[in-house]
UniProtKB/TrEMBL annotation:
<dbReference type="GO" id="GO:0033612">
    <property type="term" value="F:receptor serine/threonine kinase binding"/>
</dbReference>
<dbReference type="InterPro" id="IPR011009">
    <property type="entry name" value="Kinase-like_dom_sf"/>
</dbReference>
<dbReference type="InterPro" id="IPR001245">
    <property type="entry name" value="Ser-Thr/Tyr_kinase_cat_dom"/>
</dbReference>
<keyword id="KW-0675">Receptor</keyword>
<keyword id="KW-0433">Leucine-rich repeat</keyword>
<keyword id="KW-1133">Transmembrane helix</keyword>
<keyword id="KW-0812">Transmembrane</keyword>
<dbReference type="InterPro" id="IPR008271">
    <property type="entry name" value="Ser/Thr_kinase_AS"/>
</dbReference>
<dbReference type="GO" id="GO:0005524">
    <property type="term" value="F:ATP binding"/>
</dbReference>
<dbReference type="InterPro" id="IPR017441">
    <property type="entry name" value="Protein_kinase_ATP_BS"/>
</dbReference>
<keyword id="KW-0067">ATP-binding</keyword>
<dbReference type="InterPro" id="IPR032675">
    <property type="entry name" value="LRR_dom_sf"/>
</dbReference>
<feature type="domain" description="Protein kinase">
    <location>
        <begin position="85"/>
        <end position="371"/>
    </location>
</feature>
<keyword id="KW-0677">Repeat</keyword>
<keyword id="KW-0723">Serine/threonine-protein kinase</keyword>
<dbReference type="GO" id="GO:0004674">
    <property type="term" value="F:protein serine/threonine kinase activity"/>
</dbReference>
<keyword id="KW-0325">Glycoprotein</keyword>
Amino acid sequence: MSSNLTLISIEDNQIGGNIPAAAAALKEFTAGSNRFSGEIPTSLGNGMPLLQTLDLRRRLAKQDDWKVTPFQALRFSEGAILRGLTEENLVGRGGSGHVYRVTYTNRRNGSTGVVAVKKIRRAETLDADLEREFESEMIILGNVRHNNIVRLLCCLSGAESKLLVYDYMGNGSLNKWLHGDVRGAGGHTMAKVPLDWPTRLGVAVGTAQGLCYMHHDCTPPIVHRDVKTSNILLDSEFRAKVADFGLARMLMGAGAPETMSAVVGSFGYMAPECAYSKKVNEKVDVYSFGVVLLELTTGKGANDGGEHGGLGDWARRHCQSGGSIRDATDKNIRYEGYCDEIEVVFKLAVMCTSSSPSSRPSMKDVLQILLNCSEQMHQKNITRHNTTPEYEAAPFLVP
């Protein structure tokens, strides 16, 4: 072994046998996801941090048994994902698990990449039918290809948990931009800048495109069942990506969070029929998306309906009582000159949140209305841009 060599990484190669004594001279020796056996050289660790040596001993003492199911060509190793599940990389906590921002070194070109890893702890007892259903749905979503759906890169299945690895979305969830703290790429809290109306409408269109694809272009149709602002993620350009298609919810056994329905969905977003029937169709997504549209137009949260309960009921009663949609609009976008478009989206949201599933439009119809609205806004912006203010022409009118 060359005396100038200080680092070797051979992780995720399934190499067996003993660790060579010459490895003791290295400052860093990364050998995760292999099948080494025997004793660790006694001098190994003299040039390596103690924790690395202890981690290596632990891995040799007990081989981690993870089943990797890839859905894309993976540029990271299993070991890189497992090492990234640290407290400092934790960016989100939920009822079904934790989400980590994990960086890795690209195995192909050495560049640095980032993924989001959702760690889902499995219930002590999980019904075999639910387990099979989870596996089936995981495979379906792993093969979905759409610009407005977060890519599921792979799944790592262990004895105590499952790891779902997704593309990382730098701007986090829509929920945080509308209602909470916004965190940047490094997980640090940033000053929240209210989203303007063109951005909000773009998010609505992107989300509708993702859901429309699942409902109308997939065979059989796929129903999300938990559409909400925290499951709509935004990339670095604020393009919307729909995430978490019911995967985590299926893994929950007894002791599910009180904020979740025993059937499926989240309070504030659940269609009324979810309370009395397990046989639901894609119209439950339409209802939930209607609530999202109301959040985008009013700035209110899904459960901010006051005495009326949910936001959908509040919006309907507001219209029935003759209330002004302008008065209900989020003050951050109320004076941006898009009142007509905002009113269209508000009324569309009321249609989507009808208590009767048959009265709700399809996602294909919803998308078409939003696209028309977006085109109308685009034409309005072009007109504004091409209109010359009177004061600019004034000097030429002087005799």
